[in-house]
Specification:
By secondary structure, the protein is of the alpha/beta class. The protein has one domain (2-345): Vaccinia Virus protein VP39 (Rossmann fold). The chain contains 12 helices and 17 strands. The strands form 4 sheets. Strands 1, 2, 3, 6, 7, 10, 11, 12, 13, 16 and 17 form an 11-stranded mixed beta sheet that branches. It has a two-stranded antiparallel sheet with strand order 4-5. A two-stranded antiparallel sheet has the order 8-9. Helix 8 packs across helix 9 (239-246). It is globular.
Length: 346
Amino acid sequence: MRTDHAIAVGDAADTEWDDGSVELVVTSPPYPMIEMWDDLFVARDSAVDAALSAGDGPAAFELMHDQLDAVWDEVVRLLAPGGIVCVNVGDATRSVDGEFRRYANHARVIEALRARGLTPLPDVLWRKPTNSLTKFMGSGTLPPNAYVTLEHEYVLPFRKGGPRSFPPGDERRYESAFFWEERNEWFSDLWEFTGTDQARKGDGRDRSGAFPFELPRRLVRMFSAYGDTVLDPFAGTGTTTLAAMDAARNSRACELDADLVADFDQRRAGLPERSRERCRRRLDDHRAFVADREAEGNPPGHEAVHYDFPVVTKQERQIRLYAVDAVERLSAPGDGRQYAVEHVPV
């Protein structure tokens, strides 16, 4: 199986890709009212700087989201009927002109995508246990002016129109199935994981606020099938592209920072080895799950077609894992990147 991947340097609000050409969007935009992204928003609209300088936090918040709205317009155009958008976003807390307040980015994104005709689906709280238990905001141990520390972000799924339809018994969809025990973990509304096996010191994560690899990897497997195309309009260090490569999906991405795109060649190094190991780990984890069920006297009742183990549901019988075998860099316009990835069954 071959998949194709493109990372463009430029504005995701203005692409040349065809209407309805992507089945899934997985992205994490720059968060309005988080100071590390102030310069990015100000460079694109000086009114943001004026609002912040005047101490008008709510106005700055809206102006920043206006910039994201232009990208959401393009996302909706590119999304195929029945396609899914997954937006990872966190709220902000900030003092502007002496006033401390929360800026609800997740609520503003929901409002924006609903207004563009997308249907909100049940969301996920991604809890990031990275803060010290002794960390606090405000006056510490004295009531009433201490504040809750935000240690979670949101994963907000939306769908364009009704559910996607597939031909009966569609091979690529059934091969893309996930295991019963994975379904029970992934489709919970609370996720807890940190870190990424892709991170390297100086790889640009400090400039992009990149999410961990597990987040897009999980979403790609939950909401797309083999051969689908995954879009990330705020590519950053390219974590969604790596996840799409790993999961045997095609991908497209946009990123304003040409240096981050140039760094992607370093981040993809060793992908075939990591991909094979992840596939082996999934199979080993399932075998351990089967052994536990058998020990409890409740063995799974269906046999997998491509593997030597049983599965719980009939839908899992055709499941087939593909690992990255080779990644070839192709010529690309400007500072962008294009790749062809070969996958082999495991």
